[in-house]
Amino acid sequence: MIKNCQIFICALFTFASLHAQSFEIATFNIQNFGQSKMAKTEVVDTLAMIVRQFDIVAVQEISDISNQTAGAFLKVVNASGARYKLNCSERTGVQPDDRKSAEQYAYYYDSRTVTLTDAALYNDVNDDFQREPYIASFTRKSDSLTFVVCTIHTAPKQAVEEIAALAKVAKWIPTRFRNAKRIIFCGDFNASCSYASPAALNALAIRKAPYYWVVPDDADTNLANSACAYDRFVVTDNLRSYVGGWDVYRAFKSKKVSDHWPVYIKLEGRR
C-alpha cells in the first residue's frame, strides 16, 4: 500500500512538473479598443476572462488617444484576484505619414508565471512600418527560459512589405535586448486573403529558415464569412522544439468583442 502511494505521489509530482512548464502565449487584436468599448461591461468582462486564460497576451489595436484604456482594463482583469501586470507601448506612428493610424500595443502577463525584463518599440529609421512593432523580453519562472516577443499590427495594404521587414527587426533585436536568441513574432499580420497570398509570403526571407510559421495559411482567425489566417505566430528555429501546439480561442461570437479571435501557442519544456 505504501509502495503504491509512493508511485502515485511520484506520478502526480511528474505530472505537476510537466504542467508547470506548459505555458500559453496569445495574440489578440481587440478591434478599436478604447473608451467606448470599455464602457460596455459585458464586452469588457469577456475580454478580461480571455486574458486570464493565458500567461502572456499581446494585444493590438488599442486606439485610445488618452492612453487610459490599457490600465483601466488591467484593473478589470485583476478584479477576481488574478495577478496580471501590464506593459504598454507609446503610441505608434512615429513618422508624420503614419500618425493618423497610430495605436498602442500592450502585453498583459501573469506575474505568477513570467517576468517581463525589458520592452521597446522598434527603431524604425527607414519607415518600414505604419505601426512600429513592440518588443518585450520575458523569463518563464518555472525553468528560467528566456525569450523575446515581438508583436505587430500591419497596415493591410502594405502587409507583405511589412511582414518582409520583420527580418530587419530580427537583426535589430539582439542589438537592443540581452539574451535575445529566442524570438517569437506574433500579431495581426493581415497575412491572408486579399492582403497576402501564400506565394507572396513564400518569397520572403522571414518565411524561410531560421523561422518557423506555427499558424498555417489555411487557418481561420477572424469572425468574417471568409476564412483568413490574419493572426500569426512565427518563432525562431531554436524555439520550435518548445512549441507544443497552437489553436484559435473561439470564446465569443459577437463582433462587439472583436472581429478577430485570440490565437495562441503552447510553449512547453524542450521536447
Structural write-up:
The chain is α+β, with helices and mostly antiparallel strands. The protein has a single domain, classed as Endonuclease/exonuclease/phosphatase (Deoxyribonuclease I, Chain A), CATH 3.60.10. 26% of the residues lie in helices and 29% in strands. The chain has a 6-stranded mixed β-sheet with strand order 3-4-2-1-12-11. The protein has a 6-stranded mixed β-sheet with strand order 5-6-7-8-10-9. Helix 3 crosses helix 4. The two termini are 34 Å apart. The N terminus is likely disordered.
Mean pLDDT rating? 91
Instruction: Give the tally of structural domains.
Output: 1
Helical stretch count?
Answer: 7
Shape descriptor reads: globular
Low-confidence stretches: 1-20
Helix content: 25-40%
Largest sheet: 6 strands, mixed
Question: Mind telling me the C-alpha Rg?
Answer: 19 Å
Name its key features.
271 residues; 26% helix; alpha+beta; globular; 12 strands; single chain; 29% strand; disordered N terminus; six-stranded mixed beta sheet; Deoxyribonuclease I, Chain A
Explain briefly what this protein structure is.
With 271 residues, this protein is an alpha+beta fold. 26% of the residues lie in helices and 29% in strands.
Topology:
Elements lengths: L1 H19 L2 E11 L1 H4 L2 H11 L4 E7 L6 H9 L6 E5 L15 E7 L3 E8 L12 E7 L5 E8 L5 H18 L6 E6 L9 H5 L8 E3 L17 E6 H4 L2 E6 L14 E5 L4
Parallel strand pairs: 1-2, 7-8
Antiparallel strand pairs: 1-12, 2-4, 3-4, 5-6, 6-7, 8-10, 9-10, 11-12
Helix pairs in contact: 3-4
